C-alpha cells in the first residue's frame, strides 16, 4: 500500500507552471473521466471480493495477515509523514535517477506479485474445470520463526497458469522499469489497489474512522487547502515526491493524449492512497452488509460507494477551479464517513455497525489488557 507516499490528486495544465503547453478542455475532460473511472473500478470490485476473501479465511480458521488495529490507525499518519519527508530529502539531496532506480525496482517486485494475483483471480474463473486437471499443482510451505513467539506456518498454493501469469507480469515490470510508461504504471497501480482493498482488514468501523481522520489532517498539512489564499497548512513536499517518484504509486493519465497519443507527457495524477484508504472502509461496510443483511442487501456498501463518487467528484471540481493539486482526503473523508454513518443512524444500525468485527480482537491486544 503506497498511501504514505502520495495521497494527492494533482493536475498540471498551464505552460507558465510546467513549461509544457496548456491542456485543451477536451484533454482535461478525458483525463478527469479516466482517473475517475480508474479509481472506481478497484474500489468497487476490491470491496466485493473482500467478502469472499475474508469469509474464506474465517472458514479455514485463519486471520488476515494485514490487519489495522486502533494503535496502527493512530500511528499511521506519523509513520506516513516520516516516510514522505524522508523521500522528499532523498529527492532533494541525492541524484534523482539513482533514487528512482532503486525504489522503482523494489516497488516493481511488489507490483509483479500484486499483478500476478490480480490476473489469476480474473483468469481462473474462465478456465473450464476439465482443463484445470492438466495444470500442475504446486504447494510451497513456509515457516516463520520469531524469537519469543510460536512459529507460524503458511502455505502458498499455485498452478502452472499462475507461473505463466507471473512470467508475463515480470516481463511487463521489466518493460516498465526501462520505459516508465504511464500505461504500465497504471496496470501495476490498479493491481496494488485491488489487492490492498480486498486483503487488508480494518478491525472495526471505529478504527476506520480514526485512520481516515488522521490522514485527513495529514493530507491537509502536507498538501494544503483550497487555494493559495487559504493555505494555512501546506508544503511542496507531497507534490515534489509525487512528481519525482517514478514507481507506480499513483494513477496517471495524459491531458495531451489527443495531440500526442500514447507518447503524451502532460499528466493528471491521483494517488493510490486516495483510493485504498477510503476503499478499506467501504470494503468493511460491504462485509458488514453481508453479516447484517444475509439476503444480499448492500445498503452501506452502496452508500459508501456513492459517498466516494461524490467526494472524488468534488475533489476534481475544486482542483479544476483552482488549477492546483488538492488534498483529496479533505473531501473524501467527510463524505465516506458521513453518508454511511447517517444511513446507519436513521436505520437504527449504528450500534451494530460499530460492534462489527471481521475477526476477534488481536491476541496482542488481549495480552496487553491482561498485563
TrEMBL record:
It is found in: Endoplasmic reticulum membrane. The keyword Transmembrane helix applies. It is a multi-pass membrane protein. SMART domains: PSN. Its main location: endoplasmic reticulum. One of its GO terms (molecular function) is aspartic endopeptidase activity, intramembrane cleaving. This is Minor histocompatibility antigen H13. The chain crosses the membrane at residues 29-52, 73-91, 97-116, 158-179, 199-218, 269-288, 300-322, 328-346. InterPro entries: Peptidase_A22B_SPP, Preselin/SPP. It comes from the Eukaryota. Keywords: Endoplasmic reticulum, Hydrolase, Membrane, Transmembrane, Transmembrane helix. Belongs to the peptidase A22B family. GO terms for biological process: membrane protein proteolysis; signal peptide processing. One of its GO terms (cellular component) is lumenal side of endoplasmic reticulum membrane.
Amino acid at each position: 500500500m503506497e498511501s504514505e507516499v502520495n495521497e494527492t490528486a494533482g493536475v498540471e495544465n498551464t505552460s507558465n507552471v510546467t513549461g509544457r503547453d496548456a491542456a485543451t478542455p477536451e484533454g482535461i475532460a478525458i483525463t478527469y473521466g479516466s482517473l475517475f473511472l480508474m479509481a472506481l473500478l478497484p474500489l468497487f470490485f476490491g470491496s466485493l471480493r473482500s467478502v469472499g476473501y475474508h469469509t474464506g479465511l474465517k472458514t479455514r480458521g485463519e486471520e488476515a495477515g494485514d490487519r489495522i488495529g486502533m494503535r496502527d490507525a493512530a500511528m499511521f499518519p506519523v509513520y506516513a509523514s516520516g516516510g514522505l519527508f524522508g523521500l522528499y530529502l532523498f529527492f532533494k539531496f541525492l541524484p534523482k535517477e539513482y533514487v528512482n532506480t532503486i525504489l522503482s525496482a523494489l516497488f516493481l517486485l511488489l507490483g509483479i506479485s500484486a499483478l500476478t494475483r490480480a490476473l489469476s483471480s480474473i483468469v481462473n474463473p474462465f478456465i473450464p474445470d476439465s482443463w484445470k486437471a492438466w495444470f500442475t499443482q504446486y504447494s510451497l510451505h513456509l515457516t516463520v520463526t520469531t524469537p519469543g513467539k510460536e512459529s507460524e506456518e503458511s502455505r502458498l498454493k499455485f498452478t502452472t497458469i499462475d507461473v505463466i501469469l507471473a512470467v508475463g507480469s515480470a516481463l511487463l515490470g521489466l518493460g516498465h522499469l526501462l520505459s516508465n510508461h504511464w500505461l504500465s504504471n497504471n496496470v501495476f497501480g490498479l493491481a496494488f489497489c485491488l489487492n490492498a482493498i480486498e486483503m487488508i482488514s480494518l478491525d472495526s468501523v471505529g478504527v476506520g474512522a480514526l485512520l481516515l481522520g488522521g490522514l485527513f489532517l495529514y493530507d491537509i498539512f502536507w498538501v494544503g487547502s483550497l487555494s493559495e489564499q487559504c493555505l494555512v497548512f501546506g508544503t511542496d513536499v507531497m507534490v515534489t515526491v509525487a512528481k519525482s517518484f517514478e514507481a507506480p504509486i499513483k494513477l496517471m493519465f495524459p491531458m495531451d493524449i489527443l495531440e500526442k497519443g500514447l507518447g503524451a507527457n502532460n499528466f493528471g495524477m491521483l494517488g493510490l492512497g486516495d483510493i485504498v484508504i477510503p476503499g478499506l472502509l467501504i470494503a468493511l461496510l460491504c462485509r458488514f452488509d453481508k453479516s447484517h443483511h444475509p439476503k444480499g442487501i448492500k445498503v452501506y456498501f452502496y452508500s459508501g460507494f456513492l459517498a466516494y463518487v461524490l467526494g472524488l467528484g468534488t475533489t476534481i471540481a475544486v482542483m479544476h477551479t483552482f488549477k492546483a493539486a488538492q488534498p483529496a482526503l479533505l473531501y473524501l473523508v467527510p463524505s465516506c464517513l458521513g453518508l454511511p454513518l447517517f444511513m446507519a443512524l436513521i436505520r437504527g444500525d449504528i450500534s451494530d455497525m460499530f460492534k462489527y468485527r471481521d475477526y476477534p480482537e488481536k491476541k496482542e491486544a488481549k495480552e496487553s489488557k491482561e498485563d
